[in-house]
Design a protein that fits this description.
247 residues; alpha/beta; Rossmann fold; 6-stranded mixed β-sheet; 4-stranded antiparallel β-sheet; 10 strands; 24% strand
């Protein structure tokens, strides 16, 4: 039987006295695309960032295969983040480095590639995301959509097993959203395991294997896109869908 890539057991998160979510249990299987959706303030991004310990949960356990992530020290977490990549809402590129150098940095420092091999891999990844002609440009000269494509290429450079996407299109102009979703769809078709916090209902509906609906300090529902969008199990989910689908 296939083991989960990521597993969460009784995970809770508090900020001071404020409970974000409580006793959450979930698992991600190899090759799955999970879309986490729900109202603003439900703690979706916080949950995602806990999966590779960019945020520390208050209690509970997270496992990457059979390794307990919540017990890892700094060096182990650095290794984990090679396997569990992250694409952020606001790109997080180094402004003082060219596009190719943004990708080469980790290839050299983490993967130990020499300059030539790192450049070759960076160019191949830029070609994959449609930006081969921007290798020598700086992030400030790129559109938001282009910067996000570079950020995806940078994450792919580590050959991750899983990529976490934290609202990857929310900082983009509407006409740029499609480019990013297309790349994510292509990655899904290639079998990449992805956990995506998103407001893009068409992506959630058409690309995901499973929807996690987060609200009221819980993952209230988990299910296939067809079942969730056609027949949500809770009034809270129905209310959410009525609002977002009737905008």
């Amino acid at each position: 039987m296939t083991e989960p890539v990521l597993k969460v057991e009784n995970l809770s998160k508090k900020y001071g006295d404020t409970l974000v979510w409580d006793q959450v249990n979930a698992q991600v299987m190899p090759g799955q695309v999970i879309s986490i959706i729900g109202p603003s303030g439900a703690g979706k991004s916080t949950f995602l960032r806990c999966l590779n310990m960019l945020e520390t949960p208050t209690s509970g356990k997270i496992f990457y295969h059979d390794q307990e992530v919540t017990q890892m020290k700094d060096k182990e977490l650095q290794s984990l983040r090679e396997h569990v990549g992250m694409v952020f809402q606001n790109f997080n590129l180094f402004a003082n480095m060219s596009v190719s150098d943004n990708i080469c940095l980790a290839l050299k420092k983490v993967k130990g590639l020499d300059e030539a091999a790192a450049k070759d891999k960076a160019l191949a990844l830029l070609k994959q995301v449609g930006l081969a002609d921007k290798a020598d440009s700086y992030p400030s000269s790129l559109s938001g959509g282009q910067q996000q494509r570079v950020a995806i290429a940078r994450s792919l450079a580590m050959d991750p097993e899983v990529i976490l996407f934290d609202e990857p299109t929310s900082a983009l102009d509407p006409e740029m959203v499609g480019d990013i979703l297309k790349i994510m769809q292509e990655l899904a078709e290639q079998g990449m395991t992805m956990v995506v916090v998103t407001h893009e209902m068409s992506f959630a509906k058409n690309v995901s294997d499973e929807i996690w609906f987060m609200a009221d300090q819980q993952i209230l529902e988990k299910g296939s896109p067809a079942s969730f969008f056609q027949k949500p199990q809770t009034e809270r989910a129905q209310d959410f869908l009525d609002k977002v689908l009737n905008l």
